[in-house]
Design brief:
1 helix; flat; 282 residues; mainly beta; single chain
Amino acid sequence: MKKKFSKQISIGILLCSVVFVAGCCVQIGGCPILAQYQRLVQLSAPMEEGSLLEAKTHNGSITIEGADVTKCSLTATIVAGAATEKEAKELAEQTQVRLDRLGDKLVVKIEKPTPLVNRSIKVSFKATVPNCMNLQLTTHNGAVSIAEITGDVTATTHNGKMTLMKLTGAANLQTHNGSIRCEEIAGNAKLRTHNGKISVYYIQTAPAVCNVSAVTHNGGIEFTAPPNLSAQVDISTHNGSIKTDLPVSVVGKISKRKIKGTIGTGQGKLRLETHNGSINIR
């Protein structure tokens, strides 16, 4: 039975600090960014098991960790840059972060002043949530790190690495410039990057049937299968080698750079593809 939670969202302590930037100026045809001001915003809201946390930022990292709790506890780190300390502080204080509840979904919202000519705002999130959660996370410039979640995870970044640990639900991760590393996972996985290595390690208690797609253009792929893996396999590289410790019943032509066939009874699907890199399967 789901517990009833209050809809009140509490705002915690705001911590601020000023950092002067020496020897690093960003200029867009005007005054350079010489000072930064950092502000921490602490928020919390009750969450039911199986609900969704949605968080989106443009410049900043996202870190989510599951725990035996009944609420979302989030720290937003706001870093504002401007020509002077006063301007940076004003910019940081004008940037607001809040938690909005929309049905069974909790949404992290950012409100920033505009325009940002010769000014910058970076907002990073770090949150602790109930283990049994679904996550939908988006950033453009920043890393994504997720741990101890039993629900499904969808996460996207453009410039940043992605790390996933101890997930039993499905994973859908995408970046353009960065590696993807998944450790101790148990569910289906759809992973894509353009420039970066992909590493996937299934836990020993994972089911034998799973659907996995790992695609990169520049980078190798390391795949440790669940015990007794059963899958139709499609593995290919253009510049690299393929090594498998698992027996594959090959269908069609045998090639050093492409393998199609089955492992076990072929119930799931395994697609591993790179253009420049080697593939290792264990």
